[in-house]
Amino acid sequence: MCGIVGSVITVAVGAVLVLGTSLIGYVWVPKIVKDVIVSEVVLVDNTVQMDRFEVIPFAMNFTVRIFGISNPDVVMRGGVPVMDEVGPYVYRLYQTREVLEVTDHTIKYRRHEHFKFDPVLSYPNKEEDLITIINVPYHAIIQVAERLYPRLMSLLNLAMSDVFGKYNEPIITISAKELLFSGISLCLPSSSIVAGVACEIIRGIAADARNIEIMPDGSLLFSVLDYKEQLPSEEYEVMRGTDDPANVGRILSYGESRYFSQWPNPPQGGMSVCNHINGTDSGIFAPFVDTTKSLYAINTDICRSVELRYELDTEYEGIPTKRFAANEWLLDNNEQCFCLNYTTGLNRDDGCLLEGAMELYTCVGSMEAGYSGAA
Ligand SMILES: *[C@@H]1O[C@H](CO)[C@@H](O)[C@H](O)[C@H]1NC(C)=O
Ligand SMILES: *[C@@H]1O[C@H](CO)[C@@H](O)[C@H](O)[C@H]1NC(C)=O
Ligand SMILES: *[C@@H]1O[C@H](CO)[C@@H](O)[C@H](O)[C@H]1NC(C)=O
Questions:
Q1: Which residue, among 171, 228, 160, 178, has the nearest Cα to 364 in the 3D structure?
Q2: How far apart are the C-alpha atoms of 254 and 260, rounded to whole Å?
Q3: Crossing angle, helix 367-374 and helix 136-148, to 10 degrees?
Q4: Rounded distance, CA 239 to CA 246, Å?
Q5: Where is the chain membrane-spanning (predicted)?
Q6: Which residue in 13, 123, 189, 209 is a FRET match for 277, CA 20 to 30 A apart?
Q7: Considering only CA atoms, which of 336, 254, 357, 352 is closest in space to residue 296?
Q8: What secondary structure does DSSP assign to 352-363, as a single string?
Q9: Of the candidates 186, 182, 195, which has an alpha carbon nearest to the alpha carbon of residue 140?
Q10: For 179, how many CA atoms within 13 A lie in the half-sphere containing its CB?
Q11: What is the C-alpha separation between 312 and 325, in angstroms, rounded?
């Protein structure tokens, strides 16, 4: 009798133990792991993840490829350009975040970026390589002036050589470094009154353009990337993940706005999906990634959110990772709202640019020039 009870109890205890272990195995341990992961990602002061958030502990690869024109003489006589991809020019990109304010669930910061040319990863390309390309500021200034100040075009015509100096050509040959960082100088001090007037107008246009800097002597300096090195980003306000780790890094506002404003909103009112600020600043992502769902991050160089889709499993320095990437959907314009109908010559019937081209007029140029000028 006693023996039977004893063994029933033993079985029961055994069953409880087995149940207990399987609970520990299947519920508790994953929960511990999950809690540990959560505690290592949410942005709390004096933690390694906060240090990692403020100073990203490794450099990213920032790879630039440039399309050169291999038949400039033919193009100048009206022929079709033959484009030739040169690069990569690889820069190591060091990023830091300057924290401005922390509240219970949110954090405000600005991002700083520092580029350093990597001759080994770029080999055999050098920053000093000469490339023949479209003279970007030349065309941009003429296009904007034509749109905003059509009556002043004849004035600009008289002042071209003083305004553009040695870069007074539609196609120029410059080094990769000049194009990306050291810049193309315009409106150098001159005694010509006509150039003075034209440059005054161009300074007005440049004041809002991110990639044209106004120098202390009043001259202008155009470069593709230097402003990123010189200026901090606009202010980000993001979630810390303290309420829900799935929200860590999720942007609430950028530049004190909850939406981008570069893209046209529907005339009947409401917000265009193209102006949505989705996801993070691309330097932080929430844990427990679901590969069936897209990730989103904003890219301030193109003033829009970018959808990243799961591509494959891979590894980084021995750590298993999942690769998400943006591909053809980034440029297909199917939403039909990354479209301004300002840039001409490569539009579809709906006023959007052809597939593969990206409209940057309001993004690098000025909003004010874009909208009030068009109005
Ligand atoms: C940068 O590129 C090099 C060479 O392709 C690669 O070995 C390295 O892992 C890359 N670094 C990052 C952070 O992606
Ligand atoms: C933002 O995310 C929503 C889904 O949450 C999506 O419908 C929309 O297209 C996204 N906008 C952009 C610009 O990616
Ligand atoms: C785009 O602009 C052109 C010229 O101003 C105009 O004729 C055309 O109707 C516009 N297209 C759209 C879709 O707004």
A1: 228
A2: 8
A3: 30
A4: 10
A5: 7-29
A6: 209
A7: 254
A8: PBPTT----HHH
A9: 186
A10: 23
A11: 9
Ligand 3 neighbours by CB, cut-off 6 Å? 341, 350-351
Length of the chain counted residue by residue:
375
Cis peptide before 57 (omega within 30 of 0): no
Distance CA 299, CA 264 (A): 18
User: Which is the closest atom of ligand 3 to the Cα of 350?
Assistant: 13
pTM metric for this prediction: 0.81
Going from the Cα of 283 to the center of ligand 2, the distance in angstroms, rounded, reads 19
| Domain extent listing, the chain | 53-229, 259-372
Distance of CA 88 to the CA centre of its chain: 18
- Burial 29-57, CB ≥16 within 10 A → b, else e: eeeeeeeeebeebbbeeeeebbebbeebe
User: Amino acid letter at 227?
Assistant: Y
Structure token digits, residue 232: 């901090």
**Continuous segment of H or E residues that includes residue 146:** helix 136-148
Q: Which ligand is nearest to the CA of 259?
A: 2
Report how far residue 343's alpha carbon sits from residue 361's, in angstroms, rounded to the nearest whole number: 7
Residue with CA at minimum distance from ligand 3 atom 7: 351
Ligand 1 proximity of 337 Cβ (cutoff 6 Å): no
Please give the DSSP secondary-structure letter assigned to residue 92. E
Distance in angstroms (rounded) separating the CA atoms of residues 351 and 148: 19
* Ligand 2 pocket mutation, candidates 277, 280, 307, 358, criterion most atoms within 8 A of CB: 307
Q: Which two tokens stand for residue 158?
A: 């008289």
Q: Tens digit of pLDDT per residue, the chain (375 long)?
A: 455 555 555 555 555 656 555 555 555 556 777 787 778 888 888 888 899 999 998 898 999 999 999 999 999 999 999 999 998 999 999 999 999 999 999 999 999 999 999 999 999 999 999 999 999 889 888 887 888 888 878 888 888 888 999 999 999 999 999 999 999 999 998 878 888 888 888 888 888 788 888 899 989 999 988 988 988 999 999 999 998 999 999 999 999 999 999 999 988 888 999 999 999 998 899 988 899 999 999 998 889 999 999 999 999 889 899 999 988 888 877 777 888 888 778 888 888 888 888 888 888 764 343 333 332
Q: Which ligand is nearest to the CA of 309?
A: 2
